[in-house]
Design a protein that fits this description.
The structure is a single chain. This protein is mainly α. The protein folds into 2 domains: 1-62, Multidrug-efflux Transporter Regulator, Chain: A, Domain 2, CATH 1.10.1660; 65-129, no CATH class. The chain contains 5 helices and 2 strands. The chain has helices spanning 10-17, 21-30, 49-62, 67-77, 81-126, and strands at 37-38, 44-45. Strand 1 (37-38) and strand 2 (44-45) form a beta hairpin. Helix 1 (10-17) packs across helix 3 (49-62) and helix 4 (67-77) packs antiparallel against helix 5. 12% of the residues are buried. The model has no long low-confidence stretch (mean pLDDT 87).
Length: 129
Protein backbone atom coordinates (compact mmCIF):
# COMPACT_ATOMS: atom_id res chain seq x y z
CA UNK A 1 0.00 0.00 0.00
CA UNK A 2 1.19 3.45 -0.81
CA UNK A 3 0.94 5.52 2.40
CA UNK A 4 0.24 8.68 0.41
CA UNK A 5 -2.99 7.15 -0.97
CA UNK A 6 -4.20 6.41 2.56
CA UNK A 7 -6.20 9.24 3.91
CA UNK A 8 -9.21 7.90 5.79
CA UNK A 9 -9.24 7.06 9.47
CA UNK A 10 -11.54 4.34 10.79
CA UNK A 11 -14.18 6.82 12.00
CA UNK A 12 -14.37 8.40 8.56
CA UNK A 13 -14.64 5.00 6.88
CA UNK A 14 -17.35 4.03 9.36
CA UNK A 15 -19.35 7.18 8.72
CA UNK A 16 -19.02 7.00 4.93
CA UNK A 17 -19.89 3.30 4.71
CA UNK A 18 -22.44 3.26 7.54
CA UNK A 19 -20.64 0.28 9.03
CA UNK A 20 -19.70 0.38 12.70
CA UNK A 21 -16.09 0.66 13.78
CA UNK A 22 -16.37 -2.68 15.59
CA UNK A 23 -17.63 -4.33 12.39
CA UNK A 24 -14.76 -2.84 10.38
CA UNK A 25 -12.28 -4.25 12.89
CA UNK A 26 -14.07 -7.61 12.78
CA UNK A 27 -13.89 -7.68 8.96
CA UNK A 28 -10.16 -6.94 9.17
CA UNK A 29 -9.70 -9.80 11.64
CA UNK A 30 -11.67 -12.16 9.37
CA UNK A 31 -9.64 -11.18 6.31
CA UNK A 32 -12.46 -9.43 4.42
CA UNK A 33 -10.43 -6.21 4.50
CA UNK A 34 -6.71 -5.88 4.17
CA UNK A 35 -4.85 -4.80 7.28
CA UNK A 36 -4.69 -1.01 7.21
CA UNK A 37 -1.53 1.01 7.19
CA UNK A 38 -0.76 2.57 10.57
CA UNK A 39 0.30 6.15 11.06
CA UNK A 40 3.20 6.97 13.36
CA UNK A 41 0.59 7.67 16.02
CA UNK A 42 -0.91 4.19 15.53
CA UNK A 43 -4.07 5.31 13.74
CA UNK A 44 -5.50 3.03 11.07
CA UNK A 45 -5.32 4.66 7.65
CA UNK A 46 -7.44 3.34 4.80
CA UNK A 47 -7.59 3.91 1.06
CA UNK A 48 -10.87 5.32 -0.25
CA UNK A 49 -11.78 1.98 -1.90
CA UNK A 50 -12.29 0.49 1.58
CA UNK A 51 -15.64 2.29 1.69
CA UNK A 52 -16.66 0.58 -1.57
CA UNK A 53 -15.50 -2.80 -0.22
CA UNK A 54 -17.61 -2.36 2.90
CA UNK A 55 -20.64 -1.38 0.83
CA UNK A 56 -20.11 -4.50 -1.29
CA UNK A 57 -20.00 -6.68 1.82
CA UNK A 58 -23.23 -5.14 3.12
CA UNK A 59 -25.02 -5.61 -0.23
CA UNK A 60 -23.80 -9.20 -0.53
CA UNK A 61 -25.02 -9.97 2.98
CA UNK A 62 -28.40 -8.48 2.10
CA UNK A 63 -28.55 -11.00 -0.77
CA UNK A 64 -28.06 -13.81 1.74
CA UNK A 65 -24.37 -14.51 1.22
CA UNK A 66 -22.31 -15.54 4.22
CA UNK A 67 -19.10 -13.74 5.16
CA UNK A 68 -17.18 -16.84 4.05
CA UNK A 69 -18.83 -16.68 0.60
CA UNK A 70 -18.21 -12.94 0.37
CA UNK A 71 -14.57 -13.41 1.30
CA UNK A 72 -14.17 -15.99 -1.46
CA UNK A 73 -15.64 -13.59 -4.02
CA UNK A 74 -13.38 -10.77 -2.85
CA UNK A 75 -10.31 -13.02 -2.90
CA UNK A 76 -11.23 -14.33 -6.31
CA UNK A 77 -11.60 -10.79 -7.61
CA UNK A 78 -7.90 -10.29 -6.94
CA UNK A 79 -7.17 -13.03 -9.52
CA UNK A 80 -9.17 -11.48 -12.33
CA UNK A 81 -12.66 -11.17 -13.68
CA UNK A 82 -13.25 -14.59 -15.29
CA UNK A 83 -12.58 -16.80 -12.25
CA UNK A 84 -14.52 -14.35 -10.09
CA UNK A 85 -17.52 -14.42 -12.44
CA UNK A 86 -17.54 -18.23 -12.49
CA UNK A 87 -17.37 -18.41 -8.71
CA UNK A 88 -20.11 -15.81 -8.33
CA UNK A 89 -22.40 -17.65 -10.75
CA UNK A 90 -21.84 -20.89 -8.81
CA UNK A 91 -22.46 -19.21 -5.45
CA UNK A 92 -25.62 -17.45 -6.63
CA UNK A 93 -26.98 -20.63 -8.22
CA UNK A 94 -26.39 -22.48 -4.95
CA UNK A 95 -28.00 -19.65 -2.99
CA UNK A 96 -31.09 -19.69 -5.25
CA UNK A 97 -31.42 -23.45 -4.68
CA UNK A 98 -31.17 -22.88 -0.92
CA UNK A 99 -33.85 -20.17 -1.07
CA UNK A 100 -36.18 -22.39 -3.11
CA UNK A 101 -35.80 -25.21 -0.56
CA UNK A 102 -36.46 -22.78 2.29
CA UNK A 103 -39.56 -21.42 0.50
CA UNK A 104 -40.94 -24.97 0.14
CA UNK A 105 -40.25 -25.61 3.81
CA UNK A 106 -41.98 -22.38 4.85
CA UNK A 107 -44.98 -23.11 2.62
CA UNK A 108 -45.32 -26.51 4.29
CA UNK A 109 -45.19 -24.91 7.72
CA UNK A 110 -47.80 -22.37 6.63
CA UNK A 111 -50.15 -25.16 5.48
CA UNK A 112 -49.72 -26.99 8.80
CA UNK A 113 -50.40 -23.83 10.81
CA UNK A 114 -53.54 -23.09 8.79
CA UNK A 115 -54.74 -26.65 9.39
CA UNK A 116 -54.09 -26.39 13.13
CA UNK A 117 -55.72 -22.98 13.28
CA UNK A 118 -58.74 -24.20 11.31
CA UNK A 119 -59.29 -27.13 13.65
CA UNK A 120 -58.77 -24.95 16.72
CA UNK A 121 -61.18 -22.25 15.55
CA UNK A 122 -63.72 -24.92 14.57
CA UNK A 123 -63.59 -26.48 18.05
CA UNK A 124 -63.88 -23.09 19.72
CA UNK A 125 -66.96 -22.20 17.66
CA UNK A 126 -68.58 -25.60 18.42
CA UNK A 127 -68.24 -24.87 22.15
CA UNK A 128 -70.05 -21.62 21.79
CA UNK A 129 -66.98 -19.50 22.44
Amino acid sequence: MNPTSLSLQIGQVSQMSRVSIDTIRFYEKEGLLKKPFRSQGGFRLYPAETVDQLRFVQKAQALGLTLKEIKSIMSCGDRGLEPCCNLTVDLFTKKIDEFEAKIKELQGMKRKLKKVLGSWVGRKENRGG
